[in-house]
Amino acid sequence: MECTVRxxxxxxxxxxxxxxxxxxxxxDGAPDGGGRNLAPRPMELVLAGxxxxxxxxxxxxxxxxxxxxxxxxxxLTSERAEKDPKVFTKxxxxxxxxxxNLKPNVVERAIKLSHEKYCSASIMLEKMAExxxxxxxxxxxxxxxxxx
Length: 148
Hints:
By secondary structure, the protein is of the alpha+beta class. It is built from 3 helices and 6 strands, in the order βββαββααβ. The strands form 2 sheets. Strands 1-2-3 form a 3-stranded antiparallel sheet, with no helix packed on it. It has a 3-stranded mixed sheet with strand order 4-5-6, with helices on one face.
């Protein structure tokens, strides 16, 4: 895996990352740090990438477990150290999993497997940040109109 990050100019703090898979992501800094708030901050992308990594795992595990999953959202909230390096000190993952007749024990197992075995991003961050997890299940059957 590789990535090239290039500063886009002499003014501001905007950077363009080009991934080995051929995609581009723009990053920018906060105005108080010379940025212009034109794109996500690099640490926001670390958090977003971690959320994407674990959500991917959870969906894949639930599908392989025969669950009728219809949606998966994970909201990550974090705290960072006050002084440099401002590493993450706490991260909470709250999953909202939608589907039909989803089994809570299977959802819980999928989240646990992601964070203990498969999600390299969260496993890496766990070495310095306290991680907590919660989830809720939304049954799509409850959203069907009467007589459906």
